[in-house]
Design brief:
Blueprint: H1 5-30, H2 41-44, H3 51-72, E1 111-120, H4 127-133, E2 137-139, E3 147-151, E4 156-160, E5 165-171, H5 174-190, E6 198-210, H6 216-222, E7 225-227, E8 235-237, E9 244-247, E10 252-258, H7 261-276
Antiparallel strand pairs: 1-5, 1-6, 2-3, 3-4, 4-5, 6-10, 7-8, 8-9, 9-10
């Protein structure tokens, strides 16, 4: 039997009322957090570690312990292995300053600064012709009657006169002075002059060396010397016959008048004990 429209209305009303009652009961259970109802059920369940996660964590702890133990052993490496904890304790290292060896002051050795020598070519020379044909020459007859010529190897300078005499300066050894004089004579010979090589002789050897500070005031009272500090800061010392030593307060010495290396070292051995007795020491504060 068909239902009347009024019966259908009441049936639908009763059904909707039961649905609303169920929704109200769910709201009462959730309380003030109704948004959790829209999340999936997997996210609402509390997390429980599985057996695989426990095994992984145990392996990480074991590897970190192994790396620490390896670092404690002699010869072990402190670098963590793969899979170990990336955080490693850092021990501050104090920088060690290397100890420099104590070196003594080098012994002062005389060094030749200049040698003056002379040689005779045995013929007269035309200096005007040499000045017009040769290289690296300087000739001013109005101021100086000699011609100046220079070479590079060895670096020396020659003063050439019309009489055929040559004065060679600038060499650092006796061999260099002799070689330079030969080269100057050869240059003049190539210009057409009948040149010879006679009477080569070394006249002066200039030597310098450095020692300790010296008290020139006390030295001037006990040794034959010439000391005028108002005119020149150095002291002229005449201890070795034929040679003069210029002594400065700083300890620098210039020796001139020697004829060869043997005389230079003889003068050095004579002056060094004398100067050591007049050494100036620094005052302690």
């Amino acid at each position: 039997m068909d239902k009347s429209p009024l019966e259908c209305y009441f049936d639908n009303f009763i059904a909707n009322d039961s649905v609303m009652t169920e929704k109200e009961e769910v709201k009462e259970e959730l309380g003030d957090k109704p948004f959790l109802s829209i999340l999936p059920e997997e996210l609402l369940t509390p997390y429980k570690p599985s057996q695989d996660d426990t095994d992984k964590r145990t392996s990480l702890d074991y590897s970190s312990q192994n790396s620490t133990a390896a670092a404690e052993l002699p010869g072990g490496s402190s670098v963590p292995e793969l899979g170990a904890s990336p955080v490693c304790p850092v021990t501050p290292v104090t920088p060690v300053t290397p100890m420099m060896p104590v070196t003594q002051e080098p012994e002062t050795i005389p060094q030749i600064q200049n040698i003056l020598s002379t040689v005779t070519l045995g013929c007269c020379l035309d200096l005007d012709f040499i000045a017009s044909k040769a290289w690296n020459v300087e000739y001013k007859p109005k101021t100086h009657k000699a011609l100046t010529m220079r070479i590079r190897k060895p670096r020396t300078t020659a003063i050439i006169y019309e009489t055929g005499n040559i004065v060679c300066t600038g060499a650092k050894s006796e061999e260099q002075s002799w070689l330079a004089a030969r080269k100057f004579a050869r240059i003049v010979q190539k210009l057409g002059f009948p040149v010879g090589f006679f009477n080569f002789k070394i006249h002066n050897v200039v030597v310098t060396w450095k020692t300790f500070p010296i008290s020139l005031e006390r030295l001037a009272h006990y040794q034959p010397c010439s000391y005028e500090p108002e005119l020149f800061p150095g002291l002229y010392l005449y201890v070795v016959p034929g040679m003069t030593a210029i002594v400065f307060p700083s300890g620098k010495i210039i020796l001139s008048g020697a004829k060869n290396n043997a005389e230079v070292y003889k003068a050095f051995e004579t002056l060094q004990p004398i100067l050591s007795s007049f050494r100036r020491f620094r005052r302690q504060r």
